[in-house]
Amino acid sequence: MRNFKHILLICTFLGIPTAYATDSTLEKQWSDELVKTTDEGEIAWLDIKGGKFLSLYREDTTGTLQGAAIILHSLGAHPNWPDVIAPVRNLLPTYGWATLSMQMPVMPMGEPLAQHVSLFDEMPERIQAAVGYLQAKGINNIVLIGYGLGAAMGASFLATNEASGIKAFVGISLVAYEGVDDRMYSPTSLEKIKLPILDIYGGRDLDNVILTSKTRANAARKAVIAVSQQQELTPFKQSATAQAAFTKRSGFIAYRQFEIPGADHSFRGFEDLLGKRIIGWLKQHAGGITVAKPADEAKNQSE
Q: Of 45, 64, 153, 186, which has the fewest CB atoms closer than 10 Å, so is most exposed?
């Protein structure tokens, strides 16, 4: 009974319903640390049913906002994780992309993969809350960037939510766990995603990521063929670079798989190259539109 009351108290503090599978103790640990160590202006509490969760928002610093990227961390981590997440969320605003790095539902890293399956049930609500948060700011050119298990979660979300409002997907070290749950096997999701995709990984990445790279590429090409045959052009018209992504002659060409030689799963020492590859790809497949900020819109209407 004492342990139940302790869990209930933590969930009430975070606003997370006790029926959720996320480790509320770990989430509280991360949120306490981030609130103390992160600029107050970046803290964003997003609402979900019966509660809230922590995210970190960084505004575009160029004055010419291109859009925003929702960023999903990997196993047992937080929205400012030093490997991949912090470098990407801090770099993109200097190139015109605001970032919203989310606290995903988590379990300790030592837990078996099967224990993480239930987190996929909670993930869609959080991503939808993030999309709503950005749209409320007047930002509609939204991309999704996931890392590790977060990339698998992002792919799973996009495979079943075509009308999510997200325009493109970047999977960093996209894992593919077979035999656990279909949602954890990324090729299954990639077959269904009708958006521009960047699949980027390190040459010394996890065996799981490297060994399934061809399988992921083949799965994405199946989606290409399906789109080409069915002429399902509507999702592509939402992209800022729809014509570049689709042609009658070659079909959907916006899937790109890119290896960074020498980089391991953490991408330490390769952060700049990782960031530049993502920025270059976004410019080609999701950029090209300067998004007016709310203040700018009001000014334009008054003139």
A: 64
